[in-house]
Known about the structure:
The protein is of the alpha+beta class.
Amino acid sequence: MKNKIFHTQDLCLRTNLRCAKDSARMEINVKKQEEIFREIQEMMGETKEGRIRWSVEVMTTEANPAEEKPVEHEDGLDWTIDECYVSYYCKYKGKDFCLITYEMLKTANSSTGEQKVKSSNMVFLPPLGMRFFDIHALLPYSIEVSNVLLDAIHRLWVMLLDMYKVDKGSIYLNVRPGTLTIEDEKN
């Protein structure tokens, strides 16, 4: 009888610890989102004032020929798949700041000719030495994101592109084509 009680208490303790860890992780993610949002807002202001210089690197499959892109059949439609990575780097308050975004885009034409688009987004805060455009390598550095944070990152992207259009020397921008291979999970 004592062993069963001990086992139950042990299980409850482990479950409570797991719940506490999950709760703490969620709290850290929320804090991290709010903190990153605030930092991006501040960085945008300082960038407009000319105090921050950005290095932006992009790898995308969007300009690749259609025959090179993977196609997935889903919901009765053939979806063409693209992906885009964007790495944002700057010095902020004397420290290195690196953020990488990933977007998977699926496009399909419906029977009415209407183009449908699905999008999945991820955000990563990797260490400086980890600036690979590889979803598997970046996954340990992913953070949970809200639509508010995604919007802030998108506004940063638009602002940096607008600055680049006016003065090509204001932002380092490197865009290169990528390749996308969908691995078959059946193997």
